[in-house]
Amino acid sequence: MSDDKEHFLEQVAALKDELSGLLDGMDYCLDWKDSEEEWSIREVVCHLLDTPPGGMATVLKQVLEGNSEEIIIHSSLTNLTPERKSKDLGDLRQDMRELLEQVESSLSAVSDSELQASTAPVHLVRSDVHEERTAGGLVERALLGHWREHLGQIAEIRQALGFG
Asked: Which pTM was predicted?
């Protein structure tokens, strides 16, 4: 893993572009599911917005400022709220864009050494793992890795709906 902020900034920019492309044309099928056990695009997006609780931008800022308590990550929650159920694709895109821009802002304001030195305890609920992660480690795994996994999930939904 590289705690290189320039690498992270490039990856976040790429993530924004990829997400934008995957959400194109999905307005009318935000809530479509292949089966009841699967997540809809809306559920995937809401999960990303609030995992970890409060969202990655807030958590990263707290860790970098040294104000973070244990970060509890529930990997199986959609985080779908009544407010988010009422949002259209444009609203959800805006929420995602704002979150990623806040991450970029936090990353731009620190050095590589701060990304390595700033740490927080993390509890992965599903596997009951407790570990210490650097801010860079959080970006690498809880943002870039986690979001890429779910972008793959959105791509699968697009394919099931007949989008190329």
From this structure: 0.94
